[in-house]
Amino acid sequence: MKDEIVNRVANSALVTINLEDYYPKGNRILFDIKDWLYEGFVLREKAFRDQVASYNWSQYQDCYVALTCSSDAIIPGWAFMLIAIHLEPYAKKTIVGNLDALESSIYQEVITNLDVSEFANKPLIIKGCSKKPVPQNAYIMLASKLKPIAKSLMYGEACSSVPLYKNK
Questions:
Q1: Is the sign of the CA dihedral 105, 111, 141, 126 positive or negative?
Q2: CA distance 130 to 118
């Protein structure tokens, strides 16, 4: 048949990698310590320690937590460490920063542990659009990890990809 439609993308050796497929389940929580400070600005050690000790940390079971202070207070490093120690039995991951930094940290761990051996010497496309909040840093980390083993590396969709790298 002369008019048969052939899907060249489906028949090609291209391998699409979708970072959404590696999105870890779990709520992302921004924990602001501002309300635990005297007048929102001063950390009083005894009161702060009492607040941390009496707080119900189990509500963060299997969550990812970003610790922050939304006021302009100067927070000593031990304060966030103390909270992280109390979160450790419950939270999957705890960082100091915002939700974007948390997502980047989560994906850094995912990509570091990703076995990419199945992608060796293949033309690869890193899928660009996602419905989940995949941080831009994750795409950069994945491209860096794949570059040494890929035959070629592209970004986007198979029908409209942008070439990034070609192994010569």
A1: negative
A2: 23
Instruction: With beta carbons less than 8 A apart as the criterion, state whether 63 and 26 touch.
Output: yes
| The Cα angle at residue 59 between residues 55 and 65, in degrees rounded to 5 | 90
Query: In the predicted model, is pLDDT for residue 6 greater than 50?
Result: no
Helix (H) or strand (E) holding 162: strand 160-166
> Measuring CA to CA, how many Å separate 7 from each of 10, 18, 62, 138, 161?
6, 20, 42, 30, 16
| Strand 15-17 with 123-127, pairing | parallel
Report pLDDT digits (tens) over 149-158: 999 999 998 8
DSSP string across 61-76: TT-EEEEE--SS----
pTM of the predicted protein model? 0.85
CB 150 within 8 A of CB 122: yes
Q: Where are the beta strands (DSSP E) in 9-102?
A: 15-17, 28-32, 64-68, 93-96
Under 8 Å between Cβ of 15 and 103: no
